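Review this:
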Amino acid sequence: MTGSLNAGLAQWLMAAGLAPERYIAGQGTALGRAGRVYIERDGAGVIWVGGACVTCVDGRVLL
């Protein structure tokens, strides 16, 4: 999964009462990476996704 997918999924799971307001999700397992993202819904209902990251690809686009 990606962070953005985790954000959308969290919104749905929390609205359905299937996830707490704050939890940790794993991602990258299928690629051999033990990534963790921290999901939290604040008082205004905004979903926040955070965690450590590593730049794997860097580049520039000239338009």
Q: What stands out?
A: Residues 3-50 form one domain.
